[in-house]
Fold each of these.
Amino acid sequence: MINFRKCLFYTITLFYAVMCPVLILYALGYIFAPHIDEGLVKTGLIHLESLPSKAVIRIDHRLQPDRTPATLSDLLPGFHEVEVSSPGYRPWSQRVEVFPGKASIYDQILLVTSDTPSRVLAPGPFKNIVAVPAAKLLILLGGGSKLSEAAVFDLKDHGLVPLFSDPSAWAGAEVEGIDTVTSSSSVLIRARRGSGKIYLWCDLSKKRPEVRDISVLVSAGPPGDFDWDPREHDLLYTYRQGEVSAIHLREASVRPVIARNVSAFGLWERGALTVQSGAVVRYEPGRKKFQGEVLETGEAIAALFPEGKTYRMRVLGDDLALFLGAQGELMANRLPYRFADHGVLGVDITGHGEKVVFWTRERIGVLDFSKARTRKRFFETGPRVEWIFEAGKQIRRVFWVNEGSHVLYDDEGALWLREAVQTAGAAAERLASVKADASVAYMEETGDIFFLHPKTGALETLGLLPKEKLLGLSLAPSGDVPGRETP
Amino acid sequence: MTFLFSKENLAASDRRLQRLFEIIPGAVSWTILLGLAALTVTRPILASVLIIAFLFYWVLRLFYQTILLMFSYGRLTVESQTDWQERISGLDRLETYLKRVRSQRSFGPPARRLSHWFHRKDLEALAASGSKPPLSSDIFHLVIIPAVKESREIVEANVQSIAKSKFPQKRILVLIACEARAEEKVREGCSGIAAKYREQFLDCEVVEHPDAVEGEARVKGANATYAARHAARFFEERGIPFENILVSCFDADTQASPDYFSCLTYSFMCRPDRTRCSFQPIPVYHNNIWKVPGFARVIETGSSFFQLIEATNPEKLVTFSSHSMSFKALVEAGYWPVDMISDDSAIFWKAYLHFDGKYCVVPLYATLSMDVVDAGSWVRTVLSIYKQKRRWAWGVENFPIVARGFLTHGNIPWKDKVRHLSKMFEGHVTWATLPFLLMVASWLPLIFSGREFSSTVLYFNARRVMEITYTLSGFALLGSIFVSQCLLPRSYIRYSLVRRTIHALEWLLVPFILVFLSAAPALDAQTRLLFGRYMEFRVSEKRRKS
């Protein structure tokens, strides 16, 4: 037994002594390639994950035994033609450069169905749609944007009902815009009847929408922005000409002006956050009046927010906020602060909150705030705008898709899908034609796109994400940008 | 050579040396764990390379141990049908017996032939040594059963198993070493057992160990030593030479198989250096195996496996739990340490140092059955097992004493010193670190790696190596499950297929057991020693449910 044990021990020890360095070298990417001059070559690998999974992989036109998700190792450094395909889906192909010891990772390949068939949900004709993801419904506006013809389409049971129980009360009124807020099932409808303005507060969380006319509470004056916290149903903020006011809906009372000379305004932790006179101030709603607390002051703040310019603030986390100016300026509280000087029409944020896509008429840019912090430099640089598309004609709306791997955008009457990286040769996929002057809605939690047919004005839908993806997603509303939909 | 096998009453220089060696195991274990954790953050590539080397080592070690386990179990099975009494009788007439064995052709099933082959090898070695074994009729056994809070039922089952021994019971002296501090009920129980079985043995006595003896700690070794001194007087009075006596120190819950004392006597007679030997049986935990929670079953079966594997390496074997040894060696080495918890392993090291390295442990392919820890409830059993394993791991207290002893014992060859010390050191450090490295640390580079590392070939290959490692470990685990099934007592095998299946599935608890009930208590024990927070003996809770 002793001799057997010794023999076994020395055999295994010898095996370990020889094979361990070999294993480590292999793990580091080295392989012995006798046909290459060097003999020992440091290879790289390509990691591929696709949606749907189990897609066929071809590298340099050679079929691979593995299907996605797969890690293809032992690849010699240099360029390789990679193709991922699945029956019924458009193939994804890319010229991928492999570096020694490095992994080229493509973990969010989204395969789009070949024919992308759309489905008619309601014949219409409709003029515009507004999505209310928190209530899982769409508001549809009729041909003339008449308030009395506004309808609600329930995404759960596909039922179409009028928004108002007594439409005749709003006869003659035309919708100017509908304001929505992420995670809120309430909307604010702005309408005009003759020279008079109408403001309607609609709670869509109930089976039968509750509509309340708050025109009296919204004082006369120039049009401004509205905002509310989804957790504070009764408090509506208005921001116009550098002044922030609040309307208490339950008490039907208007709080006096909370803050003046406000350069930027947004909501944060059940309170209002402003930038005013070179200071960041937080206002917390108290029993009788708002309590203001200066959080930060500094010359840099004053320099960033010159007098006369106003910004809407979007707080993305404890230490990240975006500022969208009236002239389309885009700023953030992170270096280098200014990201676009003009022309930005809107922003969309991923669920994680650190990746932002924004757009102008012609361009789509991406800002990744999570990347910026990994680099240690003498001078902090902050994130850079990555322009992923610059040849747009009339980009109206951009959405994040598949947790930030792709962007969906509406450009001059067509819906397009594109990877959210600046890759040479990466082409956009055309998904459908849509009504050019109408909005498009996309719901990440279901992977469905809602749009109006360009000719018939019918409400149609298109499933973008395969079902296997949806199983892994929460049913919570996605991080859509609050905003105004103007017909 | 005079060497104080204790951490107490040392000269200043020895005390410093002792303290230094006390610090080393814990310090090394913590350095490995924290060092690797730090490396995963600061140098993920280096950490991953080390982890790959470690995982490869682990897989090979696992297969190596599984092969040894299979072989050792095979040997145990082979010897299970052996008639030891017949062999003992043969040894009394060595020359004619050897001739007869030589002339006998191997016959019967392979197991029997293999047993015959081992037997013939033993006899050849004994004959070649020129050493003449004592007559079997001159050999006596002393069994010491220390008791402090065990119920009469547990101790009586122990004595009863000795009474069923195939070895002539009139040459067995049973001493129940009862602590004076034990409850009245326990002491009465011990007295009742002694009275009941006295006539069956050479004698059966209760030796009451007084409490708070100066120089002693409240440890089992002190109690056993007190009883052994009593036995020495007993044998002296009757003129029985110590070299013909084998002493077995059994835990109170031990139950010897009927063949145990015969097998022990045979091994004793076969050894030319029989008074320089300890004899280590295979501990199994079958007394209450189906009456305890599953994790307790798995962990104790693991202890049996450990001893089966160790049995294949007699050169480095150390005594563990219930075991036997030459009474002469015990007396000459100065009995069990009276201030150490790990008396089972400490007596080997004490004798090894006392006899200048000319002392060894002989594996016995016979089993002693003991109780699995059972504290009543699931939670209490977990805690009790944790404390029991910590006590076992407290065997690390031997390291500083043995290391100090090796420095002062010039007669022990350096090769042997390095071999023993490195084995002891490696054993304790891997006990405390290996499961943590395997289950926790190896994931760290994958979890905490930055963007830069996660886009390297190494990141992906490390993940692949881990997947392969766990798959291969699963195969080795299947081997363990197979042996665990075979080890179960026959009566239980018949008992229920469902129970056997449940027992097999319980092995899925191994990752949890390795980390929380093996590595954690070992690290705890080493950390206590590192900081000089010495442990006291705690009796594990064991009970028999009817």
Amino acid sequence: MTVCELTEQSLSAQRPVLFRYALLQLKDCELADDAVQETLLAAWQASASFEGNAGLRTWLIGILKHKIADHWRRSARETTIPVFENLAEEDEDCTEDDFFLDDGHWNGGPKAWSDPEAALNRQEFWAIYELCQNNLPPKMARIFMLRELVGLEADEICRDTGLSDANYWVTLHRARLRLRECLENRWFNPSNKEARHA
Amino acid sequence: MRSCRDISALVSQGLDKKLSLSERISVRLHLLICSRCRNFQTQAQFLRKAARRYADDWESRWRKK
């Protein structure tokens, strides 16, 4: 878009990503729907102020974050108000040291999985997947989900979370190491005795 | 020689961005001789596929709750 023209189509094309982003924060479909609806409406009304430099999606997510924050402000009955970026704090216990020996070789390490594709069709697998994903430390979980579930790009996630580029790659990699290990221990090779983070 | 620790990190990054030529060569050579890093690569790709599938079902899953 060279002239940064906003159309209804270009806005609604972003709806799935916005919805998943909102769902990740609000954990409620109706609320997420509302927030996305309000966001698209606000974007439409403010389309003149869209400069296009930062990209349409980044701009929309900026608006959406305000809508989500508004929601939290309104629901005063909630005892704890979730915060967006508590990502400055490191997750505890989040190095790669458990996964590798001092010389850099795998400690244990990825075994071959038999027929992972078949697992995708098993309902029980998804319960395990969800468990493993929920077991990730908060920062790791958020980065992983923004990347793989919401579908944001690396630079968008860094902007959204204030993470440095290097920190982003390390965090995402550790999330994959953990999730992989958890699935191996709990699904693909449950006889593994060394369930470190599972 | 880069270690499994380094190579697996590059494999992970390679899912999301283009690695430099020397990085790609290191990874390729290492994967020829290291089955565990090969497994990691396959499984990291599988994780992505699983996560996307999960995200597709996410909405319907939540709506049922």
Amino acid sequence: MHDLRKRYGDYEAVRGIDITVQRGEVFGLLGPNGAGKTTTVEILEGYRTRTGGEVSVLGQDPARRSIELRRRIGIVLQSGGIYSHITPREALRHWASFYPHPRDVEEVLDLAGLQAKADERSRKLSGGQLRRLDFALALVGDPELIFLDEPTTGFDPEARRAAWETVRSLRALGKTILLTTHYLEEAQALADRVAIVKDGRVLAIGPPRELGAGAAHYRVAYRDSAGELVERETDDPTGLLHELTGEALARGEQLEELTVGRPTLEDVYLELTADA
Amino acid sequence: MPDETIGTVEGPGSPAFGRLRHPVALTWRQYRLERKMFWRNPSAAFFNFALPLLFLAGAGAALSGNQHQLNRLVPMIAGMSVMSTTFTALAYNIVFLRERGVLKRIRGTPLPTISYFGGVAANAVTNTALQITIIVLAGRAFFGIGWPGHWGALIVFVVVGVVSFAALGVAFAHAIPNFESTAAYVNAVFLPVVAISFYVFDSSSAPGFVRTIAEALPLKPLIDGLSAAMVSGAGLGSHLDALAVIALWGVFGLYLAVRGFSWESSRT
């Protein structure tokens, strides 16, 4: 997408986003609530029309809403409902019938961990099980490109790990995944590359590690003889450590709780998204 | 609803040929799913079927022996059934599916819009056809009304009534802000329309302006047409004006239904 824009009345939710997602990559859009992530993804999914810029999804303009394009993508919405009286197996069979080359329904039930609940009415499923059904419905058409909008919001840690495993297995199958999240660890755990988005703009883009490495300094922390926690930032951790340890040895002291940290994605994220 | 382009159709040489899902086949599948969901939802099945039939049974028993009154009652119930199986049922369904996010999810799949609505509409038509059949059979078996005097007119009125009320139901769903208020909105329309139409149809002494209102609404003309077809056996020719009123509402309803259609809840 190039210079993507979306305006709602006077409010411009997306203000010129440039992102190219490579095939086979897991790309994360990371940002606080209201950053324009969902709007961006929904333009790519064909739900909304852009007010400016150019977008190409698998070589097509999603605003045309071609059925051919929709056969090749899978969508996990932030909140998508399902008929109350349908069972996961029936829903998957029905959804599979929309696609020219669907995956085997039983296999998808296994992958989503829904085999035990396959014949239960959806209204009797738990929130986590419904979310797994969301995944399963997005996968059953065997799409090349999968959109995951806040896939684990509201999950407990265990369910989140399970969802992450599913995403990793999709990546292993060679699927391209665009996911939005406001959880740092999620972007860090899953994404090959991350774009940090705020107020409809991309603030930084790159692999999670490099984003951390590129932005700021090393952080050296220790507890001094008075028991105070001291934090120093430096571009030259070797030199600083030499200096600190030399002084400490000369005084015959220990540097209690000494740590040297590279800034994490979290530090970068907090720095970038802090209100200026 | 913006137009959607249907993808290129692969030729017989392509591996995808034959697996390509044809819109007609998908309409059928959607229809089958809608039927299954309908029967699994006891309250929908109750309001669609049992309520008008209980009404028919109760009023029919009360009027037993009064053939003149029974002749009026049966087409009134038939007209109300058309309205409840289409207008009421679709307004409920669309609002529920919209607010729950089912419509939005379906819109993200390759299911063609025409197949989706084809299946939904065919489901409503099936319910209406079942109801009218039951009412015709009950009229003959219990209420001393013979077979409909004019089958052709009956079918035309039912079809035009179904299309019009279905379109109006979908259009009306746009006005309903959330699922919790659906019953209030729907009944605020359904009950007064039924009441005024029944009253004017049944009473020759209704005040002129009340009659004018009822004649301008689609239900009273539908009951007139059904009455002619089921009881007196008059053909279509005698009720063309009634048919025109229903059809005009249908055109109006279709315009609003398509123009204002929303696939997702406005809350998100």
